[in-house]
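Example for tutorial group B:
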């Protein structure tokens, strides 16, 4: 089960992988800069027009301007939120170029196989967006399970990996297999993959929880799933 991930990590230094990472991170930074300035402007607009209305004497020793403090606190919270969302948004942009990753893996490791049909940028993005929405909704629902298990670390981690492992296995398998199969064939192949696909999804979910590594996780996930898909096809043919 580790071999697909090992092969994926070994291919990371290749130009195609570096280019996709740089494009996705660049787009994410550009969006976040715009969001930061718009949100900062909105926070400033929420402050009272008369700062004196928010100023009071603390212990009769010195004055405290709550409006400035609230504005500064709001911007700090905004930066923290953007930082936490960076991997998720970067992953969404990476989806625009994951087809390039799949093609690079197939070209290097499976040059004698028929090449896959490239997905359009819009199709790849919509596929990722669809699963991102499902993932967010399902994880919000799963909070009902997470909260009672908050102080039971082994169980809450199991719930997390079960849910996200299933979702990641579906998302990346559909992305990779769409280059070769139709919708009906994808559903059939996914059912046959069963446990192997699920364990691959759990591995992807684990990578997504590691800081900094989660920026590379979508690239590794796509490459690893190509190897899993090819192994499944070879076994089916045999």
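The residue assignment follows.
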């Amino acid at each position: 089960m580790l071999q697909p991930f090992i092969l994926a990590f070994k291919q990371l230094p290749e130009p195609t992988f570096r280019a996709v990472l740089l494009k996705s991170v660049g787009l994410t930074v550009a969006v976040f800069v715009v969001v930061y300035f718009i949100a900062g402007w909105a926070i400033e607009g929420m402050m009272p027009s008369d700062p004196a209305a928010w100023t009071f004497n603390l212990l009769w020793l010195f004055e405290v301007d709550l409006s400035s403090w609230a504005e500064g606190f709001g911007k700090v919270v905004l930066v923290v939120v953007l930082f936490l969302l960076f991997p998720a948004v970067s992953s969404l942009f990476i989806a625009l170029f994951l087809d390039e990753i799949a093609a690079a893996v197939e070209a290097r490791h499976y040059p004698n196989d028929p090449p896959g049909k490239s997905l359009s940028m819009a199709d790849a993005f919509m596929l990722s967006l669809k699963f991102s929405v499902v993932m967010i909704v399902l994880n919000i629902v799963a909070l009902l399970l997470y909260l009672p298990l908050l102080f039971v670390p082994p169980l809450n981690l199991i719930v997390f990996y079960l849910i996200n492992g299933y979702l990641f296995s579906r998302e990346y398998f559909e992305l990779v297999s769409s280059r070769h199969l139709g919708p009906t064939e994808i559903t059939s192949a996914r059912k046959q993959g069963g446990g192997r696909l699920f364990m691959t999804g759990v591995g992807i979910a684990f990578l997504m929880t590691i800081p900094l590594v989660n920026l590379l996780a979508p690239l590794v996930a796509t490459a690893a799933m190509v190897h899993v898909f090819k192994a499944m096809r070879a076994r089916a043919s045999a």
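DSSP finds eight helices and two strands in the chain. Compare this with the pattern of hydrophobic and polar residues in the output above.
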